[in-house]
Amino acid sequence: MEFFENVNKRRAGVLVSLPSIVSEHSFECGDIYSLYPLCDWAKDVGFSIIQLLPLNDTGFGYSPYSAISAFAIDPLYISLYKLNINTKSRKREIKFLQNHPNRIRNLKLEIIRKHYLENQKEAMSEAAYFLEKHPWCYSYAAFRLLYEEFEGKGWWKWPKEFLDPNLAKEYIFSKRREDAFFWVYLQKIAFDQLSEVKVHFEDSGVYLKGDMPILTSRNSCDVWEHPEYFIMDLQAGAPPDDFSKTGQTWGFPVLNWEVLEKSNYSWWKERLSYLEHFFHLYRIDHVIGMYRIWAIPEEDSTALRGWFHPQFGITKEEFMKEGLDPKPFESLNLIHEFSPNHYIFYWDFWKEAAYQELAEETKTKLYPLSELHIKEEEKHWRESGEKILEIFESFSSMIPCAEDLGSVPSFIRESLFERQMIGIDVVRWTKSFTTGEFIPEESYRENAISVLSTHDTSLALDWWKNEGDPESKLQFFFDRLKKPRPETDEDILLGLLEFVFGTSSLFSIQLFQDLALGVPSVLENPENHRINLPGTTDHSNWTYRFPILMEDFASDFKRNLTLRKLLLDSGRNS
């Protein structure tokens, strides 16, 4: 298909959190209809990629990376306007920067349910046809109905008769058929609306990029139905680093790749096939997890007692060969028996007082054991990750883009480079390995996406004003290029945009808020326009709403002219 063949050229794009982009026809927050004026504006200015954060159903939660289904689209995004339901809620002026997703979703569900009941025969017929084509929705509808009934409690806390998904589905679709079909109908509507958006984007010459989280909430339809696909007594996270001395615990169960392989990765194939109905490209969240992942006992609140999974570990025989019995070291919390007679060393175990107090002779024998299998494990991780990514590529014609941020081991970087996977370079973190300084535009990876900010970071202006050394930033982004030092916030943002679009990266995709030239609220208080602050449960996360209607934003002649010139000068205009 020619449309796909032309994607790999120098392009610029926009990253949006869909509920934040309110249009004239939105109901309370951004929805699928909002993508039409967004696409038209993007094409007019010269952007040719729109990237969306995950659209998965979050249930009563907020984060789209902790959804209750790996497939289902959140009903929050259904456009009432596209459904020909003329219910208005939004005045011309947006007064608050936060949505209330649960309230908005409930209002929408009430309105659509009325529509469903008024057209029940036709609606149930359409839902039945959709169910036949997309059998994943059978378990989702049953799970969603029970999830609502038990007020979001973990499925493992449900009554015994609902712990068996097959029995539960049989009961729900026989005893509560109309209610179950309503949830199927919602997915049918969302599917149709988002599929139509993809056609509109193709007609406009704009590519739509989706997002595929690799991890799944423990309290999700997928884990409920297929617990065998997950290692339930482990949770995924990240090891300690400069940002977190105790690491990160995410709560998601670790994927059981061995079981997934036995099913020919059918769950992944189904997921990718479904995403392809809507997107041309997709972001693989935490691609490092395809190679290995930091696994922590499910009950732990810190990541200190985790290990890279899968891991060979050190066998009891290997300890005994050195004249060491592993049990005393386990009692000192230096090692852990993660499988019978196989041990892992805890992160930074050598810093522990218990290790320091060991006899030097013992330390001389013990420490080398911690590095005994590193080379063969890295080889195994690399082969496993490449196998998985190759299988993913065979499942879909969508172009994968790797989220390869953070501390990426050299063997994974080499693997992604050799596979020509498109990575991501965040300007504030893209620095020389030798000097620690920012690198110039021409030194950026060509096969990557250059960005000023992500959904998990502060905005570019917030970073400029409040993070790091201001003088070094001025010298690099302005003095080095013989540009006058900025006098206003808009000057700063313009300088940063000119830099990021000028990088040698194949794509340059910017957070929508970082394009808000001429929007006083964003320029003066960028800290109020952040999407997510990782590691916090504050309900202001994932509730952000842009302060201007999309149509009003798109009609600003001066901003459009400025952005159009930036894209033209950088050779990124579509």
UniProtKB/TrEMBL annotation:
Q: Which UniProt keywords apply?
A: Carbohydrate metabolism, Cytoplasm, Glycosyltransferase, Transferase
Q: Which sequence ranges are marked TM in the entry? A: none
Q: What is its main location?
A: cytoplasm
State its Enzyme Commission number(s).
2.4.1.25
**What's an example of a GO molecular-function annotation for this chain?**
4-alpha-glucanotransferase activity
**A biological process from GO:** carbohydrate metabolic process
Q: Which Gene3D superfamilies match?
A: Glycosidases
* Similarity remark: Belongs to the disproportionating enzyme family.
Q: What is this protein called?
A: 4-alpha-glucanotransferase
Q: Which organism is it from?
A: Leptospira perdikensis
